Amino acid sequence: MSDHRAHPVTSVIVARRTAWLFAFLPLVAALLGLVLLGEGDREQTPLDQLPRDLDSTLATELEQRLPDEGSDTAVVLWTADEGELDQDALGELRATAEELGAVGGGPDGPVSVAEDGTAAIAIVQVASGSATDVADEVEDLRTQLDESAPDGVTAQATGPAAVQADLAAVFDGANFRLLAVTATVVAFLLVITYRSPVLWIIPLLVVGVADRFAAIAATQVMAALDVAWDESTVGILSVLVFGAGTNYALLLISRYRDELRHVEDRYAAMTTALARTAEAVLASATTVVLGLLTLLLSVIPTTRGLGLACAVGVVVAAFFALVVLPALLVLFGRWVFWPKVPRTGQAALVDMDSFWHRVGDRVARRPAVFATATVAVIAALSIGLLGVSTGLDQDEQFLDEPEAISASNRLAESFPAGLTDPTRVVTTADPREVGKALEGVEGVSQVQPGPEGDGVAQLNVVLAGDPGSDEAEDTIAAMRAAVEDLDETHVGGTEATAIDAREGAARDRLLILPLILALVLGALLLLLRSVVAPLVLVATVLGTYAASMGAAWWLFTGPLGFSALDESVPLLAFLFLVALGVDYNIFLVTRAREEAAAHGSRQGMLRALAATGGVITSAGVLLAAVFAVLGVLPLVVLAQVGTVICIGVLLDTLLVRTVLVPAAALLLGDRFWWPRKVRA
Fold this sequence. Notes:
This protein is of the alpha+beta class. It contains 20 helices and eight strands. A hairpin with a 2-residue loop joins strand 6 and strand 7. It starts with 7 loop residues before the first helix and ends in a 12-residue tail after the last helix.
């Protein structure tokens, strides 16, 4: 029989007289916030995505004092459709370059012609600002180039400004597309899960409003605290809110449906269901929030913003799932479950001869065999983790190759490496002394004077090595060693920034990964008041992470053809898999503890598996599908993060939580709960 005693707060939320207040007031407040406030805004800076205090970041900070710090560089590339560029075409190109205000160049003016005669380039300064501002400037530049290009000549824009513009274009309307696809996937899976033409609408409505409110709350908080975020932050936040919010909703509705089989009064049924569900959801949400807040320790500003935004999102998702959803559901009758309306006196999930009941029985017969086989599968998949390497080249950042990348690849065929995107050395020392120190470095092709002002000088250094090569990396290290004794001299630019990004990501992993584990373990210790069970659960989520990374690595380097993972993938995948993966174990184990109090450890775990198997599997499949939706954005890092999490959640849901955790609990018996005793 159900225990109808509940915390006074949960009782008030779903009481006959007050349920409508908790159902509609938050929804109205969220909608008013959307209309009156809107999402927060903050001016982006060149430092937002650079690792704090590293050399390339210090170079960028020093560059802000230069007289032309308000501009970015675009490289205009003209190529002959056939043969070489003739003199008439070159004359038109020089005139166009002068109209565009091209800088630098050779003795023949601002246009430099390749030795093979098939291509020419010019350097154009583009006013910097937000990503949107730069994108608009580059779009105008490309329009002018298309209109002015001579017959038989193709004009393209590349360089740092064009790459930034094409990156911004990835997110042009992306949040709407991501939201639409996510909502569609969630709606489809909810219909399949509930097999009702009505019920799915309620949780989807609640989670959808929660998502929009979370976007407002998170961006307003970040704007108030001056925390950096980028275009991808709101997209990832939306995916997380939909995933976590729907998971919480599935758990609540499943328990509510179960209680309706015991009690005629739906208000009493929801009171019990909410009281039983709240502990697991609050424990889960707290664990995820603490894990996300560890990103505030990152050396990269936008990573800190992502952690704060997602933490706010999970709090909002949990609130709407535990306050708005139960109050709204209870206002409707049992008919919302039509055609499978739960009736009083029907068998409860734990008593039914369900698929998950049969799975539990099979595991119970040979728990050691199932545990060994599952560990073997996880170990086999984890082998791929040994080969994982990180660090994508610039031309690998996009799933669909944009103009800036295709033009850069074409440019490299006719011009020396490093010519159009030189390494920038910024100094307060004598630039002539710095130049002499750099000219003696192996791998430096040429040193060119750059802008000066306010006691700061910039030198543009062309490297002999190809971008992203070991030779280029060695040259950057040698350059830094050569100028380390000079006053405030820093090496920046694309190549140096990529090297520092790897170092910053390594620092983050070394600090944040152990902290996430410690927080998750601590949360489980407090929740279960046990030592053995938390250690087992943490070990299983670690195994899931290793297996999903290994499997994803084989997928990325095999069929998908990537050479590496993005630097941020291991950290973000670890965070979401460990924090979210432990959710399902919390849902299972808290139910097992509840059942064990009356039926003992062995039967408690089997009854919990039978009761939660369907809902947790549905939640896991839904969460995996939602994260896979990140692949609709043509940015490799998001596709990789989404793929790893999708694989990991499916492994955790279908294998680890279904087989390994029950098998381990059955093998350990009462020791699984040590030192706590689950039966009086």
